[in-house]
């Protein structure tokens, strides 16, 4: 059975730690980060990209700034350097959390969402989700609609992120199970493994892998994780150090 590592990351970092995060990004990430108008959006972007680099650097035994990323036509990032065995990964960020999935060759998609007020959830589901999903959501008592909507959303988005299409694949083309049922693709589900991730109160999160029988290993970066970015840069080619994360 293959395994996928799923990392939950706390993005509420100090100003000094955010500076450390910004230092390991490449020029295009820094430029994207600087385009955010709201400071909290910039901080979420910068910290989540630094955390992704830290985790990829641990997997590749290099420093975070040595990671080189490219993207497919729909924007899904993949690892360009350092070279080595296949490395699948995916990143999602919302509120003050990031979720990162890391595996070998099977396509991975992750999605985390801060559950927030969404008064027109049923209308959005009727427009964008599959008819069976929208009908099930419409039958729920009002207090269950928002958490279920976001749970459903993360399941569907994790699938399109694993495929690499993102939202260019309409979300009404396929159905998934509704929370609190275990996450599963309906219909042509062979060859997929989905899992709900416990991401803390007020968050919904899912990981989807385009392979059967995947085991998930759950991790959380320690709260001082940005401080490790500085140590990594001083300590190049430091070798496997998963336990220290
Ligand atoms: C990519 C997309 C799925 C991201 O969803 P989101 O909930 O906004 O953001 P998340 O935090 O979950 O994921 C963002 C990360 O996914 C990754 N990503 C980007 N494109 C991706 C793709 N096609 N497939 C998988 N992952 C992708 C990136 O790491 C990205 O991080 P970044 O934006 O900080 O660089 C979605 O925005 C999308 O498909 N966009 C392109 C098409 C579009 O904008 N359509 C809008 C009209 S429907």
Brief digest:
The chain is an alpha+beta fold and 245 residues long. It has helices at residues 15-23, 27-35, 39-60, 121-128, 131-138, 142-163, 225-234, and strands at 3-10, 68-71, 77-81, 88-94, 97-103, 108-114, 193-196, 203-209, 215-220.
Written description of the protein model:
- The chain is an alpha+beta fold.
- It has 2 domains: 13-88 and 221-238, Ribosomal Protein L22, Chain A (Alpha-Beta Complex); 107-213, 4'-phosphopantetheinyl transferase domain (Ribosomal Protein L22, Chain A, Alpha-Beta Complex).
- It is 36% helix and 22% strand.
- The chain has 7 helices and 9 strands, in the order βαααβββββαααβββα.
- The chain has helices at 15-23, 27-35, 39-60, 121-128, 131-138, 142-163, 225-234; strands at residues 3-10, 68-71, 77-81, 88-94, 97-103, 108-114, 193-196, 203-209, 215-220.
- The strands form 3 sheets. A 4-stranded mixed beta sheet has the order 4-5-1-9, covered by helices on one side. A 3-stranded antiparallel beta sheet has the order 6-8-7, with helices on one face. Strands 2-3 form a two-stranded antiparallel ribbon.
- β2 and β3 form a beta hairpin.
- α1 (15-23) crosses α7 (225-234), α3 (39-60) crosses α7 and α4 packs antiparallel against α5 (131-138).
- The longest helix has 22 residues, at 39-60.
- It is globular.
- The two termini are 25 Å apart.
- The model is unreliable at 233-244 (pLDDT under 50).
- The chain binds coenzyme A.
- Coenzyme A (COA) is lined by residues 45, 74-77, 90-93, 109, 111, 157, 161, 164-168.
């Amino acid at each position: 059975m293959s395994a996928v590592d799923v990392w939950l990351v706390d993005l509420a970092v100090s100003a000094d730690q955010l500076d450390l995060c910004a230092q390991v990004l490449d020029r295009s990430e820094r430029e994207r980060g600087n385009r955010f108008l709201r400071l909290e959006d910039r901080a979420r972007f910068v910290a989540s990209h630094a955390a992704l680099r830290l985790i990829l650097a641990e997997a590749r035994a290099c420093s975070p700034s040595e990671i080189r990323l490219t993207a497919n036509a729909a924007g899904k990032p993949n690892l360009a350097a350092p070279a080595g065995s296949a490395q699948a990964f995916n990143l999602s960020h919302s509120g003050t959390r990031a979720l990162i999935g890391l595996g070998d060759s099977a396509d991975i998609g992750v999605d985390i969402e801060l559950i927030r007020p969404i008064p027109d959830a049923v209308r959005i589901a009727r427009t964008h989700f599959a008819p069976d999903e929208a009908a099930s959501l419409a039958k729920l008592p009002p207090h269950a609609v928002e958490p279920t909507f976001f749970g459903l959303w993360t399941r569907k988005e994790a699938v399109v992120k694993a495929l690499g299409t993102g939202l260019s694949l309409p979300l009404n083309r396929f159905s998934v199970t509704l929370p609190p049922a275990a996450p599963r693709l309906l219909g042509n589900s062979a060859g997929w493994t989905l899992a709900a991730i416990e991401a803390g109160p007020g968050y919904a999160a899912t990981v989807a892998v385009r392979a059967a029988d995947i085991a998930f290993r759950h991790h959380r970066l320690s709260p001082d994780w940005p401080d490790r970015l500085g140590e990594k840069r001083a300590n190049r080619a430091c070798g496997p150090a998963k336990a220290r994360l």
